[in-house]
Structure formats: C-alpha cells, structure tokens
Amino acid sequence: MSTIEGAADAAAGGTQSPDVVVVGAGTAGCYAAATIAREGYDVVVLERKTEEEAGHIACGDALKGADAFPESIPKSQIQSAFTNTDVDHGRFEIPQEDTVLEIPVPGELAVIDRWEYGRKVIEGAGKAGAEFHYDTVVQDVVQQNGTVTGVTATRRGTPIEYEADLVIDGAGSLSLLQDKVDFGRSTFDTNVSYSQFCSAYREIVHVDEPVEWSDALVFKPTERAAGYLWYFPRTETEINAGLGFQMTEEPMKLVEDLKRDLRDRPEFQGARVEDKLGAALPTRRPYDSAVHPGFVAVGDAAGHVNPTTGGGIAGAAYAGKYAGEQAIGALEDGDVSEAALWEYNERVMDHYGARYAALDVYNILSTAVDVDDLMGLLAAMPGDKLAEALYSGSTDIGLKLKLEALLKSRGHWGTIWNLYQTKRRADEVLSHYEKYPSSPDDFAAWQAERDNLMESVYETTGADPKY
Ligand SMILES: Cc1cc2nc3c(=O)[nH]c(=O)nc-3n(C[C@H](O)[C@H](O)[C@H](O)COP(=O)(O)OP(=O)(O)OC[C@H]3O[C@@H](n4cnc5c(N)ncnc54)[C@H](O)[C@@H]3O)c2cc1C
User: Fold this and answer.
1) Bridge partners of 109?
2) CA of 174 to the centre of ligand 1 (A)
3) Which 3-state string (H, E, C) describes 69-82?
4) What is the structure's pLDDT at 404?
5) Which one of 21, 48, 133 would you pick to mutate in the ligand 1 pocket, going by the greatest count of ligand atoms within 8 A of its CB?
6) Does ligand 1 have an atom closer than 6 angstroms to the CB of 23?
7) Low-confidence ranges of the chain (pLDDT < 50)
8) Separation CA 78–CA 80 (nearest Å)
9) Cβ–ligand 1 contact at 168 (below 6 Å)
10) Which of 204, 244, 250 lies closest to 222 in space, CA to CA?
11) CA dihedral angle for residue 346, residue 351, residue 356, residue 357, rounded to 10 degrees
C-alpha cells in the first residue's frame, strides 16, 4: 500500500493492519521504523502533529556522538541539519566562584537545526519504506490476554484502529500509552513518577555580532537549586538558549532566570527571539525493563537519556535500532512474548543503560548537597577528569592531580568526602548493571539486589528516595 493510500484509508477511519505500529515520529520512532521497513515489513508511524509541524521538538540542539549514529538512516541524509560542527568543548560558567571552566568533550559533537533534523529523520525513515500517518493522536491500546495487539487513535475527529503484531512506543516522556497498557503480566517498569523528570525550555535567539564562544557548549547553574542554563551556538549568530530544572521547582520563576541572564549578557543586546518551546525530559535511570508482550518502549518513553546532561538524541536513535532489530526477530519467529523481546533490554543496558544508571547516582546526590558547595568543588577539579566523569559515569584521578585538586578545593572537603563515597556507590551500581539478567526469569533477584544498592546510595548521599 502506498503512503497516500494508507493515509487516505486512515482518514476515512476503519481498521488498518500493518506488521508493526510505531507511535511517535521522533528520533526513536523513526530509527525503529527505518530499521524494520528496510527488511520489507509494513510499518506505520503514527504522529499526532501535522506533516508540517512533525519533527519540531523542544531541544537544546546539541548532538553528541554524531559520528556513530545507526545506519538505518544514512548519516549523509541528516548531515545537512548539522549547522555547527566546530564545537569541541563545554564552557562551564561558575559565577559563585567567578570562574569559567573550559572542558573538552569526548567524541564528535555538533549543534543542529533540530526541526530540519526532525524532518530529515522522517524523510530517511520514509525512504527506507515506513509509512507516516500525521494528525493521528493515539488514545488507547488494544490487548488480548494481556498481549498488546494494536492501538486506537483519532485523526481529525475520526476514530481509527490499528492492529499489529507489535506496537513500538516512541511517544516521548511520560508516554500516554503506558497509562493505558495493563502491565500485570510482565516486568515492564511502572515505577515512574513526575519527580524523576525535568522540565526544559528553550528559545532560538538571533544576534547581530558573532558570539566569541561559537566553538563551545556554554553551561551555567541557575540561581535556584537543581537546574542549569545553556547557550548552544547553532551558528555564530543563532543561539539555542534554554534551561532545565527538576519538576519539583516552579517553572515560571526559572524562565525568569533565563530572561534575566539574557538581559545581563552584552552579547545578547538587541537580540531577536524566534521560537519558544518547552517539554519534559527524563532525568532518571533507564527503565528496568521496557518490554511487554507485543509492546516495546524506546527513547524518552523508556528513560533513555543521560540524566546528568539531558542528552537523549543518540540514545533514542540506538534504542530505535535495537527495538527494530528485536522486532524483526520476533516477526520472523512469530513470537512477541516478553522473553522473545528481552534481548532488547540487554542491548540498551550494555550500550548506555548501565552508564546512565550510574550517572543517576550523581543526580540523586545533587538533590541533597548545597549547590554553591558543589560549584566550588567543580571549579577546583581538573577539567578533563570532569568531562570523563560526566560521560562515562566514572573517572580515576592520579595521586598528583588528587592532591592538587584537594589543595585548590579547601573549604569543600566535606563535599569531596561525600562525592568520594558517592562515586564508590555509583561504581557498585555500574558493575551491578553490567550483570543485567539475560532472561526475565532472573530479573526479580537482580532487581532486589539493585534496590539494596540504591538504599546505600540514599544513605550515603542523604537524599530522599527517588524510586
Ligand atoms: C528543552 C529540551 C532540551 C533538550 N536538549 C537536548 C540536547 O541538547 N541534546 C540531546 O541529545 N537531547 C536533548 N533533549 C532530549 C531529547 O530531545 C530527547 O531525548 C529526544 O528527542 C527523544 O526522542 P524520542 O524520539 O524518544 O521522543 P520525542 O522526540 O519526544 O518524540 C516523540 C514523538 O511522539 C509524538 N507523540 C506523543 N504522544 C503521541 C500520541 N499520543 N499519538 C501520536 N503521537 C504522539 C510527539 O508529537 C513526538 O513527535 C532535550 C529535551 C528537551 C525537552
């Protein structure tokens, strides 16, 4: 069936029966759809936005790991959206200490035109053979004996039903689908709450003169706790300016912080604001399991975001690839059970999930320590080691550096001791995730041991339990 015929059928209502339904035309949904469509299966992507608006997603536009994206959508097809590939480091402004840290960022980095990138991944999945139905708001799931067998949606007021062997949930943060599925027959992670998310807001700002830091991602802590401001240069004169803050904070007051900072920076005098968008993003560990019979969650819908940086584009692309490959195996074997889909969880944990779970430990610490103290400590740390810690979830500092850092950080030794103990807990969490079970049978024991480790995390950090 051609895209046009499919969309026309959907517009007319009734029931459609592709092999796989993907909900959400974001990064995760598009990479999943492209992977499956390339093998010749019928894949329909359902997107609530219009065709024109699809791909327009609130984002800081920083793309890490741009060099190693999955091949189901060739890099050559998305590269024109990479508007700034000269960025190579983070610039951490710490006003409390009157310090600016220039920290190298490992791996290829780019700032992108996010909407253009969004259109390109949709186009790429379309070229791979996936069909897109826009204006289609998924409202519920269909289950038979617990197995998800489709979804119901409305398209401009007309109800439509989609039956499929597998439903891939790429509907983003706090996905509505997960409120609808009865997960009683599986271990799918339902321990999800608002407090594990961050609200983020950004504006696209145009300036007349090139900014001096066009080769850097600029970060700055917000005046209130648990948040940071960013300035990411799409070009020398087009800047993505935004901030992220835990959902426990008051949003409007924080947006004022961004406005004030923009006002106070000379490089933004006379600037024009073009586009304002905000959304929620997960700042938590990845879902313990993101599979249920007939159902797989990918990207933000499964917490696949680095909880310390908020970077989720690359994780979403890889989750899409792994879910797509798992779907192909399940379709070939005619088995969409939890056990048949389980390897998807293992691949996510193996690639980045374990690392993100360890990084979450530092996120938990940040809710319990004084921000000024933490900033003072950061200002005293060797920059490359900080970068390593931020991305790998662990770092090892040699004795000489340790002593240097210790001398510079007089006044923050209590925090250092706290951080040192927290690092030990994070390393324990990391090595436990490296033993993620290879089947649902061993999952309960693994989870119980992980929960014990988390008890020690809360004890060490003094933070309230997050899960
Ligand atoms: C302000 C902000 C700044 C960020 N900055 C960065 C950054 O600089 N770098 C980075 O790597 N990551 C960043 N992230 C995170 C990143 O944007 C996400 O991790 C990534 O977009 C996740 O992709 P996804 O495909 O899982 O979900 P999304 O991109 O959110 O896509 C979900 C799609 O599902 C559709 N949808 C939702 N519900 C339904 C429904 N019921 N029916 C039909 N369609 C539906 C939505 O319209 C959307 O198109 C940021 C996030 C925010 C909010």
Assistant:
1) 64
2) 11
3) CCCCCCHHHCHHHC
4) 62
5) 48
6) yes
7) 1-5
8) 6
9) no
10) 244
11) 30
